[in-house]
Amino acid sequence: MRGIAAVPSYVVMQPTTLCNLDCAYCYLPHRAADRRMPVAVAEAVAAAVTPWVARGRFSVVWHGGEPLAAGREHLAALIAAFPAGVEHHVQTNATLIDDAWCAFFAAHGVRVSVSVDGPAARNGDRVTRAGRPAYDRIVRGVAALRRHGLPFSALAVVSRPTPGLATELYDYFLDLGCDVLGLNIEETEGVNTRSNAHDAAAVTAFWAELVAAWRRAPRVHLREVEWSLRYAAAVLDGAEGDLLPRQLDPIPTIGYDGSVTVLSPELAGFSDARYGDFSSGNVLATPLAEILAGAAGTDWVGEFLTGVEACRSSCPYFGFCGGGHAANRYFEQGRFDGTETEHCRNSKIRLLEGVLEHARDHESPAR
Ligand code: SF4
């Protein structure tokens, strides 16, 4: 894996900067402002995407702010710009989902991913703008999805891995009815400056416990565990070199105003005296394909690629991780060419160690 691919497998679109919640760990800088994406931005992205869709599977991920805060009419106008065959996804806090939104998702073939951190007591950081718990509204939204028979994924943030939590969360999400689950250990990112340094053994034990919970009832696709098992299987087959893509997916994030930030959606909307606003161009001025073709020339991107090469030559986990995420480097280290971050320790190194710890503790030796 070297350099950045010219064609992404998906784009992230910000239909509005606004979010109706004010979660304590949120990284977004402008979530109180309703800056909406003009349809012309979606049309410019769609023009680039059309030939990519013809080559195979391609997704558009609507991600805010809270994308549903853009309203159905506006989101429909943005979606309408894209050709048939694009898979639309929405990452939502679920609080606005009702029967009308469910009909919208069904009509537009939108796949829903819900952000919820587990049972009510685990959602203390997810609050409204008035500081009130958002949990009841979240579960009302999820209930609407279930009533309409719409499949959904779930994404949970884990702020402090403690014994018993992994089992509690897995059982909760089994009951919730999601078919895919991703668990993120909270990240120090954007305007969230809370520390994400944890005791190594506690994080490893969290992941090991999660594997054990999943193995008892493997009815949910558990993103992190499936990645790890795929990697372990490839190592056993001597094929781990084939797992990483040949080049990094540029994952362009299209800001509400058409600005393009590659590699890390979390950098969109920020600026730095050294790196500027992190954008590689604007789709209203330059075709997206052209922006991506030149993205490796953006100063901070070149520095990040240097960091990826440093990871490759120094880290035994590189084959699993591929060199981490740009935003974690920047927000933890203030630059892009470092290697280990707290994020990669929590979510790559200790994840893999946890899966292996579970295997060591639960598998009988071969006879
Ligand atoms: S685990 Fe950390 S140090 Fe290792 S390759 Fe990934 S980002 Fe780099």
Features:
single chain; 367 residues; alpha/beta; 10-stranded mixed beta sheet; 10 strands; 40% helix; globular; binds iron/sulfur cluster
Question: What's a quick, concise take on this entry?
Answer:
This protein is of the alpha/beta class. It has helices spanning 39-55, 72-80, 99-108, 135-147, 165-176, 200-216, 223-236, 288-293, 299-314, 318-321, 326-333, 342-362; strands at 10-13, 59-62, 87-92, 110-115, 152-158, 180-185, 221-222, 253-254, 259-261, 281-282. The chain is globular and about 55 Å long.
Q: What is the percent of helical residues?
A: 40-55%
Query: How many DSSP E strands?
Result: 10
What gross morphology would you assign?
globular
Number of helices: 12
Radius of gyration: 20 Å
The termini sit apart by 38 Å
Mean pLDDT: 93
Structural write-up:
This protein has 367 residues and is an alpha/beta fold. It is 40% helix and 11% strand. It has helices at residues 39-55, 72-80, 99-108, 135-147, 165-176, 200-216, 223-236, 288-293, 299-314, 318-321, 326-333, 342-362, and strands spanning 10-13, 59-62, 87-92, 110-115, 152-158, 180-185, 221-222, 253-254, 259-261, 281-282. A ten-stranded mixed β-sheet has the order 7-6-5-4-3-2-1-8-9-10. β8 and β9 form a beta hairpin. It starts with 9 loop residues before the first strand and ends in a 5-residue tail after the last helix. Residues 311, 315, 317-318, 321, 323-324, 339-340, 344, 348-349 line the site of iron/sulfur cluster.
